[in-house]
Design goal:
Largest sheet: 7 strands, mixed
Helix content: 25-40%
Strand content: 15-25%
Mean pLDDT: 94
Radius of gyration: 35 Å
Structural class: alpha+beta
Number of strands: 39
């Protein structure tokens, strides 16, 4: 009876689906455990072998937890909104919803390409997903709830006194009774004070404008990364070297009216929460740096010849007497107002140049020094001295106040800037206010110095100086102590089609929320997915996109009369909207009325184990924590943090193949025959290269039309040997290996074991298809413990001590490895165990039944088949994991080294319970001892039971 993986795997995948073997219960007496993978974006390219790595790891853990008696929730879905589908739609004329559906479910696209489909690919690998809970963020029944969360954010404000989000109605009540003078809220800067009487006298529209300055999601003019080529705003992580990651289009900084979210309100809670979760220190540190907490002071510098002030946040208020110039971000709103006529051309040219660099690029570039003097001067708050105001792209409009008080003697960047522009108009001499030599470099330390040339701060250090200067600034009403965060409010608008529509319409230019009972507001049909001719987002092309407040329905745009029918929001939500709460939807995915019921949320609480890529550290993982905290404030989410433990899987890299074309010819020379030839390495498709690095020349010639007439210089053996290099797995490098091909040839269990065997989960490792045959061989060897050519050979024989030792060593090792996420060493242990049992000729049911259970998290199909053929009718998936019994690893014998005068001559195996006298008697009678002694009597016999035997003299 041979091992036939394709037949076995198809059988069990069908049974699991029919029996809903992995369905989780929302109410169970078992303890719960929630395992989640970061869900994929379904591209037409489908899965390659690198994608399932984290899924296999989470599946091993999920299956193990079921064996331990847990009610396991292990769901899967698709993050199916996004720019790639929209760009593909623009290029091919296909509807994004159609291409997305085909990419998930499989089928043929408009161009006739056969698409395998993510669902089919995932099913073939044998994951224990609860598919009844599948979500797709682009389905209206899902984004209905994303729209609902947006409305909750709009109808909330952040009360600093209670340190939580509250309903906007509580803020209105305060305004009605007391005005806003004593409101301690996270809100826009420079909100005008008003009394209760004034509030109550305001027109409704005026009140709404004021409330927008407090709401957790709000409309504001914001500096954004605008990509004209894509016609949309991009997030920082969608830009590489000043161009869009997708398409390589130029990106510029531009002011636009956008929806934003006050994630900054949660900065401190986001920081503190990191101490309560089991994440890698590197991810935590990335978030701490992104949030960027700083303790310091706000300082107001009055402008000369201008009524405005420049407000600066500084972490070093003690150095205020060292200020020699100020720098504003080029985008700062005051730049246009204060620039003098003679500096206008230079300033405008600099702003134009800077707009083409992303914020991330400006932050990372510490070498380039650039800036322009505005011609304007500010006034030092204490000395009243004139301070020149510059602009420079190392200052960012969105960080702090977009202004820096430059103290060159105490800051390396200010020092470099001052020296670079030394002697130019508007750049004074550097002032030294510390008792240190600054002739070569700035002194930026907070310890080991005293302030000098600093008026009332002379003789003080950092701590005393900071306290003193804040007190003095408060006296003259030009500053105060402040904690600042680098974290900025998140821009929430995208000028795209393929995203969640906002549940928003506009009356007199002010946003109004559509009542939740009328959700979802479904994405309309459009003729084209590009911006309109007059620059509006793609939804501006929609013929039916206005809100009728009488019918409470979306109607023809032509019916908009701004009386009862109003324009709808034309922007859509960003890609991170749907992924910022999806783990809660899995808890109760079929609920039509709520995003999840209170009972389901209470039962599952949070994700116990989350596995995904580290590239999401400051995007998805931060936004998810923000939304979770907000939903907890509003009484929906049961816990403060969504993900208890996080593991970042490493990348599986591709092993590329290279052929070598002799320059100027269409001749290719084998790698081992290059010699003096000048060659150009060219990627070859790895599917036409075998495990011995031999190129199939005929298939290569048929692969590309321009290679059809190519000539080949082969080696002495008549073979063309390619070069190899480990790179990122990518279609463009022709090094992609699909899991479908591996499953078809070797089976899914082989793929699963091999991916786990490649190395530690968190590390990057290269894929090498040549190594997979060894794992396949192991599974065939495992099968032969149970079957020979004639059928089942499992007996009821009593297991031997060695049998039990091999088994329990494996139970112990695998249990510890899975709990420690050391999956590769488990696979090694399986191989050791099967080799030992084969050598022992073990076919005992008492050994082989528990062995099938132990291996089932890794290789579930073969385990199910073995379990079934051993006579069990139930699935192996929920059978209790075998219990490790330490007694089977306790050695009853010891192999002693027998030494003569300290030199080991032979070994002898003896029972551990022998006395010294019994050991000595046995050793002395051994013929090998007699031969060594050659008739002599030793002076001394040293015996340490369980350790050594040494005969001396």
């Amino acid at each position: 009876m041979k091992y036939n993986p394709n037949e076995i795997e198809a059988k069990w995948q069908k049974k699991w689906a029919e029996n809903k073997t992995f369905a989780a219960e929302n109410n169970s007496d078992k303890p719960k455990y929630y395992v989640l993978d970061m869900f994929p974006y379904p591209s037409g390219a489908g899965l390659h072998v690198g994608h399932p790595l984290g899924y296999i790891a989470s599946d091993v853990y999920s299956r193990f937890k079921r064996h331990q008696g847990f009610n396991v929730l292990h769901p899967m879905g698709y993050d199916s909104f996004g720019l790639p589908a929209e760009q593909y739609a623009i290029q091919t004329g296909q509807r994004p919803e159609d291409t997305t559906r085909v990419n998930i479910d499989g089928g043929v696209d408009k161009e006739g390409n056969q698409i395998a489909g993510y669902r089919t690919q995932l099913d073939k690998i044998g994951f224990s997903f609860d598919w009844d809970r599948e979500v797709r963020t682009s389905n209206p029944d899902y984004y209905k709830h994303t729209q609902w969360i947006f409305i909750q954010l709009f109808n909330s404000w952040y009360n600093k006194d209670s340190d939580k989000a509250e309903d906007i109605s509580t803020l209105i009540s305060i305004f009605e009774k007391d005005g806003n003078s004593n409101v301690n809220a996270v809100c826009d800067d420079n909100i005008a004070a008003f009394s209760a009487a004034e509030w109550n006298a305001f027109a409704k529209d005026e009140q709404e404008k004021i409330l927008l300055q407090y709401r957790l999601t709000y409309l504001a003019e914001t500096e954004v990364n605008w990509c004209p080529g894509l016609g949309t705003v991009l997030a920082n992580d969608e830009i590489v070297n000043g161009v869009s990651e997708r398409g390589g289009f130029p990106v510029v900084r531009k002011k636009m009216t956008q929806w934003s979210m006050r994630i900054s309100a949660y900065a401190e809670r986001l920081l503190q929460g990191l101490d309560t979760i089991d994440w890698s220190e590197s991810i935590k540190e990335s978030q701490r740096n992104w949030i960027g907490k700083s303790v310091g002071a706000m300082v107001s510098f009055n402008l000369k010849d201008n009524e405005n002030t420049i407000d600066v946040f500084t972490t070093r208020p003690d150095t205020i007497f060292g200020v020699t110039f100020m720098t504003l971000a080029p985008e700062h709103e005051l730049v246009a107002q204060i620039t003098t006529p003679d500096q206008k051309a230079a300033v405008e040219a600099y702003i134009e140049k800077t707009s083409k660099r992303s914020e991330r690029e400006r932050m990372a570039d510490v070498k380039t020094i650039s800036g322009v003097f505005t011609g304007a001067y500010a006034e030092h708050p204490f000395t009243k001295e004139a301070i020149p105001v510059w602009i420079g792209d190392y200052v960012l409009a969105g960080y702090g106040t977009g202004a820096v008080m430059a103290v060159p003697c105490g800051d390396e960047r200010d020092y470099a800037f001052a020296n670079f522009f030394k002697g130019q108009n508007g750049m004074p001499e550097i002032k030294n206010i510390v008792d240190k030599d600054i002739s070569e470099a700035a002194f930026g330390g907070k310890e080991g110095f005293q302030l000098v040339n600093s008026d009332f701060l002379n003789g003080m250090g950092y701590k005393d100086g900071t306290q003193k200067v804040i007190a003095e600034l408060e006296k003259i009403n030009q500053g105060y102590g402040k904690i600042n965060y680098r974290l900025r409010d998140a821009v929430f608008s995208r000028q795209r089609y393929w995203g969640e529509p906002f549940p928003v319409y506009y009356v007199n230019g002010l946003p109004k929320m559509i009542d939740v009972q009328h959700l979802p507001i479904i994405l309309p049909e459009v003729e084209k997915y590009l911006p309109t001719e007059d620059g509006l987002p793609p939804l501006g092309n929609a013929a039916v996109w206005a809100w009728d407040t009488i019918q409470n329905a979306v109607v023809s745009t032509q019916l908009a009369d701004n009386k009862t029918v109003f324009p709808l929001e034309l922007n859509t939500m960003p890609g991170w909207a749907g992924s910022s709460w999806y783990w809660m939807r899995y808890m109760d995915a079929a609920n039509e009325n709520e995003f999840a019921s209170a009972a389901a949320l209470k039962y599952w609480e949070f994700v116990d184990l989350y596995i995904g890529g580290s590239e999401h550290a400051t995007g998805h993982l931060l936004y998810s924590r923000f939304w979770n905290k907000f939903l907890k404030d509003k009484g929906f989410a049961p816990t403060e943090e969504p993900f208890k433990k996080l593991i970042n899987q490493g990348m599986i890299l591709g092993t590329s193949a290279f052929v070598y074309r002799i320059e100027g010819t269409n001749s290719f020379v084998s790698k081992n025959k290059i010699g003096d030839h000048k060659v150009q390495p060219i990627h070859a498709d790895v599917s036409i290269v075998n495990a011995s690095d031999e190129l199939d020349v005929e298939k290569f010639k048929a692969w590309r039309e321009d290679y059809a007439d190519a000539e080949f210089i082969l080696d002495e053996n008549g073979k063309y040997i390619v070069g190899r290099e480990v790179e990122k797995m990518s279609k463009s490098k022709y090094n992609v290996v699909t899991p479908d091909a591996i499953c078809a040839e070797y089976g899914a269990d082989t793929l699963r074991l091999y991916e786990m065997f490649l190395g530690p989960l968190e590390q990057a490792k290269p894929w090498n298809t040549a190594g997979i045959s060894g794992v396949f061989g192991f599974l065939k060897k495992l099968w032969r413990l149970y079957f020979d050519d004639n059928g089942l050979i499992v007996t009821n024989d009593e297991p031997t001590k060695d049998n039990l030792k091999s088994l329990h060593k494996t139970i112990k090792k695998v249990s510890e490895d899975i709990e420690g996420f050391s999956f590769n060493t488990s696979v090694s242990q399986f191989m050791i165990c099967v080799n030992e049992l084969s050598t022992q000729n073990c076919h005992s049911r008492a050994i082989l039944e528990p062995l099938a259970i132990v291996i089932s998290p890794y290789a579930p199909h073969i385990a199910e088949e073995l379990w079934s053929l051993l006579g069990h009718s139930d699935s192996i998936a929920t059978v209790a994991f075998p219990k490790f019994e330490p007694a089977h690893l306790v050695e009853s014998d010891k192999e002693y080294p027998v030494s003569f005068n300290g030199k080991m001559r032979f070994t002898i195996k003896l029972p551990l319970d022998l006395t010294k006298e019994q050991i000595e008697e046995i050793v002395m009678k051994d013929e090998r001892t007699q031969k060594q002694l050659d008739g002599r009597t030793p002076n001394k016999v040293i015996i340490v039971p369980g350790k050594i035997i040494n005969l001396v003299g």
